[in-house]
Sequence to fold (425 residues):
Amino acid sequence: MGRKKRSYRSVDVKKVDRVRLGESLEGKRVVLSVDVAKETIYGSFMREDRGTELTIRWDLIEESRSVVELLKELPAARVEVAMEPTGTYGDPLRTLMQAAGIPVYQVAAKRSHDAAEVWDGVPSLHDAKSSEIIGRLHLDGVSKLWEGRTEEEREVAAAVGMIEVHGGVYDKRINQVEALLARHWPELTRYLDLAGVTILELLAQMGGPRGVAEQPEESTRLMRKVGGSFLANWKIEEVVRSAGETIGMPMIPAEEAALQEIAKEGRRAQKKEREARAKVERLVKQDDKSHELADVVGKVTTAVFVAQLGSIAGYDNAASVEKAFGLNLKVKSSGKYKGQLKITKRGPALARRYLYYAVLRLIQNDPVVAAWYSVKVRENGGYKKKAVVAVMRKVSRALWHVAQGAKFDAKKLFNVGLLKAKAAA
Fold:
């Protein structure tokens, strides 16, 4: 016969017999393991013997303070709270618990997911079951104390968020500008960099090729003022000439107004993004712990790592940093993938993206990294992205050593002797 299906029951927090619960848990170590949700929260009171005393449910906004009071009233020897670090819904509850002096521990969501079938023979997860699994994992010692971010880390995270906000707006507007120029003034991007300042300022003030052609002197002064010594005179002359001779579709006034507004919005976002980057760089410069990392990957990238992963120096070892990035390997056997190793991607995508760009710069600027990358590309049949990811995995581990005070040295990261032998083969 198969295992009997286990039932899970919960009680509304308003209906909890507090006296009886207190008598059952008096003098014991108690864990309230919480399954976080947007509205209704489930929490299981678990004893140190892994038994569940009671599972309760409550409204996050209306009743969380009542749950905190319930925990404070318990005559237990020690009360702990365990929860998963999923999203932001649980942050208010965690803050209330910590403010009340109740220690909060975090249990990785991956562990809860993997333990689902082991727990009761059923692979599915639901609120009450999840809360019990979280408690059991905490009691098994696979959680860690949730200390929260420092005010400095939160300030860096907020500044990084502003880079993403304004950068996202800028990217959308510059893509729109590119598409419209391809239709109405395709020659312009031959002379002005689409990602530069001059092109947006010109379009924001002149609106399009007709405005430049009708006001050649004003357009010339504007480009010289904005582009400065970096913009050659011949390019300015070609821009003005092409405005009157463009093969593009003539713009109607409404289209000119639209392009002008898009350019203005793109320029505003460009300025705001650069201001946010400057602030991030100042914050990183003020942090003594980040100087070494910034020397390797850059100030903004370092700030992204702090915002997304916390202090790299606070991790237990290099492997845990690699895992935090989601760069540790797993075997994938589905569809066209048969037993192939793939990175888990369980870390924050933004941190991986910035590490990716940092590694591309290292490949370009560090001869040892470039040589190892070249060998990897050859070993992977010319597949460059796979080779970049291999470098990312090595660099992620190296960052932990740098955060501990070591100097980044690619010769220590890669086996130079073996590298030379492979390169010569």
